[in-house]
Design brief:
Layout (H helix, E strand, L loop, with lengths): L1 H8 L4 E3 L2 E3 L25 H4 L6 H16 L3 H8 L1 H8 L3 H19 L2 H8 L1 H18 L6 H29 L4 H29 L4 H6 L2 H23 L3 E4 L5 E3 L22 H30 L4 H13 L1 H12 L6 H20 L5 H11 L2 H11 L4 H19 L1 H13 L3 H21 L5 H5 L2
Antiparallel strand pairs: 1-2, 3-4
Length: 471
Amino acid sequence: MMGPMASDETRTGTRTEGRTETPTRTTHSTTPGAPAARDARVPGPAPEATGTRAWTPWRVRLLVLGIVLAAVNLRPAITSLGALLEEVRDGLGMSGSVAGLLTSVPPLCFAFFGVAAPRLARRFGPGAVVFGGMVAITAGLLIRPYAGGTAGFLAATALALMGIALSNVLMPVIVKRFFPDRVGSMTGLYSMALAFGTSIAAAATVPMTDALGGHWQPGLAVWAALGAAAALSWIPFVRARKASASAGSPAHTGSAGTTESAGAGAPRADAPAEQPPLRITRSRTAWALAVFFGLQATAAYITMGWMAQIFRDAGVSAGTAGLLLAVIMVMGVPLAFVIPRVATRLPHQGPIVLVLGVCGLAGYAGLYFAPAGGAWLWALLLGVSNCAFPLALTMVGMRARTGAGVAQLSAFAQSTGYLISIPGPLLVGVLYQHSGGWGLPIALMSALMVPQIVVGVLAGRDRTVEDEAAR
């Protein structure tokens, strides 16, 4: 799979201020005598990402597998709950407002825990942090159905979401650092896996619940198996980090926390000094990207938390409503691979933002006037609109030149964006409870699409945060 993906992007590199950088970078020091360039026959991490340690083909494939499995686990904790929200509310005695709070927990956890991801990655290595995230997801999904009471359910959900938050932030960093000449393809692969995990949880949760006896508890807990599989795939990278750390003093610590050894552990004399952190808040592009991320996250979490209930209240059966939610999410499987590849070839990503926004407005209009009559069409349109997420991830990789810049931009855009998205799902629950219908919530979702288009166009301009932050 990796061979075809590399064919186009190795010629494009990363765009900055109207020019194209070559994909081979010389920012990090290496041991004298180490190969200066990667063997073109072995697609995998760039030399500076791995230090002096050779990367064999099986190790590259294992890293790609780990990225895919981690991505598959980043949404089932949310969409599986959305499919059974009515049963969970009845079982725990939740009101509409409390259920709205529950759907706001994901962005709250992502904002709070996502900030810590770059710091943890620098200290322990990105592989160790992602492994810990997968363990947290597994534990949270196993505990929450049987925690007893709303408070325990929320706490266990927060544990799983903490693991998701750490991996959310580090995935663009890992892609940029280990696959710098394939940002579009690897982001597409990762986003495709994420969309697959999202849609399969939405579609399969209700049938699996029925097959497991009709109780919602095992229907939610079964998704912990995916987290356990992902955690296993990251164990070799945790051990590799420990082995590298014990080999000698680090010559350089990259933005994602990968330590590179030089010689017998002594830094090279010509090793570049560690760059100071960017003043990321001075970048207008960083702010535009953060707001765009926040507004698309608002739409996504409203969709994952409430869309199945909207269809059910319109007279659609629970199983069909779950399938409609799955259709919305499964649209991201092909489009999440196509959109990043197209985006990396455009000097400005604004046209893609506009197309996604128009699809969202059309889907919400149909949902308002004929929610059941055109349900499948509205699901398709909202599924296209929901692909603003892989576009946002791609722009994170394109709006910074260095791994350190991507790490800071990813943490800033995602943490700030998720903070912005917190009120949305909660407000939808409050409006639904007090109005007795879905007219006002759908009007709110439509209204939020307009500023999402505006800031997305601004974030899509061809510039980098390093240049803006230096002004």
